[in-house]
Amino acid sequence: MTNCIELKGLVKEYKTFTLGPIDLKVPGGSILGLIGENGAGKTTLIKSMLGIVRPTAGSVALLGTQPDQAKEDIGIVLDDCFFSEHLRIKDVDSVLSRVFRSWDKALFRDYLDKFGLAGTKDIKELSRGMRMKLSLAAALAHRPRLLLLDEATAGLDPVVREEILDEFLAFVSDEEHGILISSHITSDLEKAADYIAYLHQGKLLLCDEKDRLLERYGRLVCAKADLEQVDRSYLVSARKTQFSTEALVRDRAAFSRRYPRLTVEPVTLDEMMVLVVKGESV
Fold first, then answer.
1. How far apart, in whole angstroms, are the C-alpha atoms of residue 61 and residue 142?
2. pTM for the complete prediction?
3. How far is it between the farthest Cα atoms of the chain?
4. Residue 151 and residue 134: Cα distance in Å, rounded?
């Protein structure tokens, strides 16, 4: 299998918001991190891929087929636990064992133990972080080939997040499994993701290998007069701060060759988002 996700011209239109068109491929054996500010369209994209909302245009292929034909092989964690609060944790086992032919009761219990979840507890008693753990356990226990995760590590402490990232890396250790994860915790994506897709106001601004993005883009901090002399084709966006100006540079190496006296620093995913959202296009 070459691509576990393939989107072509995907569009979802609402009265006040339009997502897309989105063209996106996620190769098997990889993790794609989906980033963007609140309201950028990340959840809409995932729900459109799953058919929870009907796309206005375009096509979606998951694991080489239509989404409704791949349901058995897709594990899903949305931004809130979708299990009834009236259930106990152990009831999830009996419910989902009737939904998925590949449901593995022993594996589900192993994940409950690993995540510190007592089966006798009511779901309504769980914190947000514990609910996310339950959703992850359920998503992994039917042995899917593709995971679609919306803020799956939100509300979890750093130790548990590290354990879950290790699970994700093990999951994609062959070329038959893949993960798309939307997250505001960009440090997690810097550790685990192979690719980064950046959504801004419904548009896909960037999509590339994570290492290449972090190597290529940079943050320029300089005086306003210096910035005014820079060729705008080197810049993505710029903004003024109290004491200086800063800009997102699209090719750090080329910029440094052209302007050797101006220093361009490496940029994090967080800094990249801030410079795009808070800055002005140039």
1. 21
2. 0.84
3. 67
4. 14
